[in-house]
Amino acid sequence: MNDFADIYDKVVKNKYDFGTGSWAVENDNIEMKFDKNGEYHPYQKNEQYQYTEDELNKLQQSCLSTSDLNESDIAKQLFSQVKGIKHDDDLGYYSDLYVGHVTEGDYRSNGSSGGFGTWILAQLLEKNEIDFVINVVESNKDDKLFEYSISDNLDGVKSGAKTKYYPVEFSEVINVLKENPGRYAIVGLPSFIMELRLLAEIDPVIKERLKFTVGLVCGHQKSTKFAEFLAWQCGIKPGDLQKINFRKKQTNYSADRYAIEVTGKVDGKEQTVVREMRDLIGNDWGQGFFKVRASDFTDDVMNETADITLGDAWLPEYTQDSKGNNIVIVRNPIIQKIIADGIRDNKLSVYVVDDKTIYRSQASHFKHTKYELAYRLFKKQKNHEWYPEKRVKPSSNLSWTRKRIQDQREKICHDIPEYYQEALSKNDIQYFIDQANKLSAKYKRIYLGKRIVSKLQRMMHLKN
Ligand SMILES: Cc1cc2nc3c(=O)[nH]c(=O)nc-3n(C[C@H](O)[C@H](O)[C@H](O)COP(=O)(O)OP(=O)(O)OC[C@H]3O[C@@H](n4cnc5c(N)ncnc54)[C@H](O)[C@@H]3O)c2cc1C
Predict the structure, then answer these.
(1) Domain of 155?
(2) Which residues line ligand 1 (CB under 6 A)?
(3) Given this model, what pLDDT does residue 165 score?
(4) Less Cβ crowding at N or C end of the chain, within 10 Å?
(5) Residue 1 — very low, low, confident or very high, per pLDDT cuts 50/70/90?
């Protein structure tokens, strides 16, 4: 058996830790705190604490990067027996696939995409399938803008609407769940839902009380500095940001042309500023500014262990509608029935779609997160570094340019927080922008080179 330092170094120091809070649920000596880069990580309360073998084993088994079980194992346990369920290597299990939105009430206008996230939680509560909802709401604590929270009423559910590109952790709320009997539903990113499933394998109380999981698709997790830097570009200095809406819909534009709305002090006066996301540095998800590195070491694009998975319908035929649409993957029969009833009662407007349509909506996400993970793992293997076992296996079978793109994404992920720290200490946003622009320029040159090579190849092909 390894000792705590071994496990900690493997997972946390090597940046394979998703910051979910699972260790702080599993062990009282561990708490979640922000590091200087605004990422959540586990820390020991007492560094002299001696862990028993059982405790160490539970820490390993509750962590996605060291568990013996992967997403396919868990999903098989949960869903393979569901009547009529199908399976796809990329989407995982599914009963129904939809693209669409909520027509009932103000769920869609208050939501980031089609409003399904809040609606399904509200339905579970209304239909007495659960007693409590665990969602992400604005925090009134000084050190954070958002946090997981528990509520037992519609107002609480609705106050959690909207995507937060911001770190949260679930140890506090799951410890409350452990203390308070009831039926709970939670919404979360893939690594969060998976680590909850792993916790449920260890702790029968969690297994019994956590009745439903609503999964989000997640391009990658961001640190708190993402929000801080967006606001800084709007004139709100670090420390002065009070509120942020990452997904303000713009009536006259397509759904993917969303804006941010930030509130905070500008020159000493409280102001609210709206800026279109595409005008801000850091808008390119491919480049991944302020990405939490562990996000590059998951192969679960579609939140495969969640009862329902929701994402944005990033498809040209749907993005034209500024009001937004979801992709929906249903795995749980109770949720399947709620949605079928919602369609029948005109509370939902959806198209039944096929697996290819769902895949297409996240094509670049699959390419980076799942398929090119093989190359990221290959580099670890080549350098004789420890890496977590994934369903995707290490391979260098990737084109020269895609390798360079991956290399540059890794460099951006590594360098951005460092330049940002320097900019903070100099109180100089321009310093950060200049350094970030250099990283982006190199990234764009690789794409340009790729386009030129493809064009030349096409011309040669025509000649022959
Ligand atoms: C970090 C992040 C990255 C994402 N990346 C992608 C992507 O690449 N592709 C894609 O298609 N979709 C992505 N999404 C999901 C997408 O932005 C929408 O959240 C999703 O489509 C649901 O929208 P909605 O209108 O149905 O939900 P809403 O009605 O707006 O409800 C959203 C629900 O999600 C909860 N929530 C918000 N932020 C978080 C969070 N950080 N952690 C846990 N729960 C949260 C809210 O509390 C609420 O319950 C991402 C979401 C996040 C948080």
Answers:
(1) 80-222+287-364
(2) 111-118, 121, 135-136, 160-166, 168, 187-189, 216-219, 221, 310-312, 314, 326, 362, 365
(3) 98
(4) C
(5) very low
